[in-house]
Amino acid sequence: MNLRKLFLVTCFLFMAMAVLSALAFNPQECEECGSDQSGFPRDGCTVVIVGKDASVDGSVMTTHTCDCSFCDWTWRHVPAADHKPGAMRKIYHISQYKTWPPEEGLKWEKIKESFTGLEIPQISHTYSYLHGGFGYMNDQQLAIAESTIGCRSKMKNPTPSAKIDLTMLTLLAMERCRTAREAVKFMGNITEKHGYGFTDDGEMLAVADPDEVWIFEIMPVGPLWTPKSGTPGSIWCAQRVPDDHVSVCPNQSRIGEINLKKQDYFMASPNVISYAVDNGYYDPKSGKPFNWKKAYSPNEYSASSSRGTRARLWRFFDIVAPSLKLSPDIPNMELPFSVKPEKKLSAQDVMNITRDKFEGTPFDPVKGLQGGPFKNPNYLPRPFKLDGMTYNTARLIGVNRAEYVTVTQCRDWLPDPIGGIVWLALGAQDTSCFMPFYAGITKIPESFMIGDHWVFDRKSARWAFDYVDFHTQVVYSHAIKDVRKTQQKWEGGAVTKTPTIDKFAHELYKKNPALAIEFLTDYCINNANSVVNSWWELGNQLLVKFNHLWIYDKETRKTKRLEYPEWWLRELVKYDKLVPQEPPKKKKK
Q1: Does one domain contain both 421 and 385?
Q2: Domain contains 407
Q3: What does the H/E/C string look like for 93-119?
Q4: 177-189 per-position pLDDT tens digit
């Protein structure tokens, strides 16, 4: 075989393998993080979005429940930096999911081993920002939250031609962008030029600043794309959430019909419709308007038809606008993009929404036997199989497998370093505590930068919250009361204290910005360290109090029986066919 034929055969084999990989591989569908056997995604993230006129204080808010259960949970503060003319920025492939044993190194050093070969011109000044699995907020009050939404199999591009994946994309936006619109355009343009995908497929980002918030959805364009093709390497669309509205993304595409003439509400890549026409996803001759989500990420389920696995979208609207009486039978694709809430939401309201367990709905996980005798909503968080049949269980907003949860606030009445706040709760939000980190801080506690699921480490902040969570699960209905009291002290205390901290920092900022930033940094670190220490102590208290499934009263130094509910005891008697103890026979006189 001559060299030309060998070259052509090699190219053909590579392209064939790429196509097969795109059809067969998806990081959300691997053994660790994939769909369950019912076809529903096993993991994912919930994003709540609040416009400035829908919030109590005028904040623009977003949330991200980083629901993974095995991903890296560490956080970083990246300082602002000035760069010399001609400097270049290396682009790395960064998997949302991959982790390494602690002895091999921390993730944010290991990713440097995954250089894509692409370098882009560095800008003269990059902003400081906070990031976990993604970039969350920079010192300009640009905030981002993420949720995977999927796309059609033919669109996936896991080949090296896609230089930009989602995590890298958010970090670049944090470094370079000031406003939400600027970030949307930047993320769209750079992925069109250099290709999007590799470790990621269809994704949604809620992109916010102190004035507005956009839902930005992006997808790959298939494994055959190359920079030399002359076509965009991504397809994307963005829709602005009205200022007086709220919205949500629960791992489903949210953008429907688009009107690009309304430039104040829509932006998109140049191939937004043509790609769908070329690939048979949309027929302009049908007479139907183009619908983004129906073309690229269709889903026919409702809350009811999925038996609660797809209920988060309906549940959010049920919470914020109950008078709409939206039925759980409505297909999710037909539910509104956003709604005006019946009451404006505070930061604490939004935190509480992230903890929602569907209480009182048809999908309440503690009804009947599922929650056990101590009403634990975290049992059976995923569908299960029995006798060859699949049984779905509710996928909650407050699912008990979060790496961390964020609530971001962008506030236009304060300077950027003070106006932006990332409220961060490590671990599952029902047993964790939201802690404030202002946009202008210059460092975070070292304990937030280390830790791993497989190695218990008392130096890692995250393990303090897992320690409490573990002890809470055993007797949930009892232990959660102690957890909520501690949350009220620290989380509620921080929320209440925020206006005072804002005012002091603002007055100081007018006189000396550096001192104001130093004050905020010290406040955030001291508060976070105090919360972590309190959670270690709370875990100790729960262990002692409910040891051996009794109640140990520290004050009286006495024990008492842990009571089991009557309904559960009746079921126990029925299932185990227990026979009551006969009363002692009376002795004959």
Answers
A1: no
A2: no
A3: CCCCCCCCCHHHCCHHHHHHHCEEEEE
A4: 999 999 999 999 9
